[in-house]
């Protein structure tokens, strides 16, 4: 009877790995050719001399080093988590778990509806979000971004 304790592969089905680099002369690598030389392995992306894919495709776009990354909060979350007349700033948003870091800029976006007056103090607000907040009787106060000096201070 066959069960898991006496299963074994067929004879000759499992091949021992060749231990290259042992012994004299060719050291198990056959004769000559690139693969027999030291450092003779080609990189995996090598296409046999054909123009490689990464050079056939055009370069596109760039990563803007001056991009401002905002932490985004939508109006539906503000409406659900804050009481009427609440003053919302970065610390309040962090306390409610809507943002991770109070030192990074915050932007309010207009997804959802807001039905109570709120005072919002953040770094940026979309035009439609500002419209909705003010229509509900709330106020939007934008925090002044710290000025960054460009170039050398000494001239």
From TrEMBL:
PROSITE patterns: RIBOSOMAL_L15 (PS00475). Gene3D superfamilies: 3.100.10.10. The keyword Ribosomal protein applies. NCBIfam families: rplO_bact. Keywords: Ribonucleoprotein, Ribosomal protein, RNA-binding, rRNA-binding. It comes from the Bacteria. SUPFAM superfamilies: Ribosomal proteins L15p and L18e. Belongs to the universal ribosomal protein uL15 family. It comes from candidate division WOR-3 bacterium. Binds to the 23S rRNA. GO terms for cellular component: cytosolic large ribosomal subunit. This is Large ribosomal subunit protein uL15. Pfam families: Ribosomal_L27A (PF00828).
């Amino acid at each position: 009877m066959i069960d898991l304790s006496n299963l074994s592969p067929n004879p000759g089905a499992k091949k021992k790995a060749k231990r290259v680099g042992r012994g004299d002369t060719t050291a198990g690598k056959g004769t000559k050719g690139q693969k027999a030389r030291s450092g003779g392995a080609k990189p995996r992306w090598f296409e046999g001399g054909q123009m490689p894919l990464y050079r056939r495709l055009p370069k596109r776009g760039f990563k803007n080093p001056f991009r401002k990354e905002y932490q985004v909060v939508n109006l539906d979350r503000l409406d659900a988590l804050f009481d009427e007349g609440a003053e919302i700033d970065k610390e309040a948003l962090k306390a409610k778990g809507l943002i991770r870091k109070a030192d990074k800029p915050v932007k309010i976006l207009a997804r959802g509806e807001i039905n109570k007056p709120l005072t919002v103090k953040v770094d940026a607000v979309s035009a439609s979000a500002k419209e909705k907040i003010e229509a509900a009787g709330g106020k939007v106060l934008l925090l002044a971004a710290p000025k960054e000096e460009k170039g050398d201070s000494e001239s």
